[in-house]
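In response to reviewer comment 3 from the previous cycle, which asked for concrete evidence that the modeling workflow produces usable outputs, we include below a single protein chain processed end to end. The sequence was submitted unchanged, and the resulting structure tokens are shown without manual editing.
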Amino acid sequence: MKTVFEYTNVSGSERLENLATEKLNHLSEKYPFLIRGDVFFKKENRSDDTGHVCGIRLSAPGPRLYASSDETNFEEAIAETIRDLNDQLEKRKDKMKSY
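The workflow returned the following structure tokens.
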């Protein structure tokens, strides 16, 4: 699966890219129909501790899947986004089996 990274108000980070790639590879092994992943990292200025946004868009057969989360750091945001995508992919897989 091809992975593309985009950053907004954040400098590029090899550590974040490796973490996201590792988690996306687990999804790709579990769901081999995934084609591409676009990962978005964004830092928002907020008065509370949140503001680290991770969004992931996956290309697969059918409509694209998208999930994002806003957490206190990017590691938590990646983990939460992957959990949301896993739920969406499970539903997509069940629909694909029924045809």
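The beta strands are 2-8, 36-43, 52-59, 65-71. We consider this sufficient to address the reviewer's concern, and the full set will be provided in the supplementary archive.
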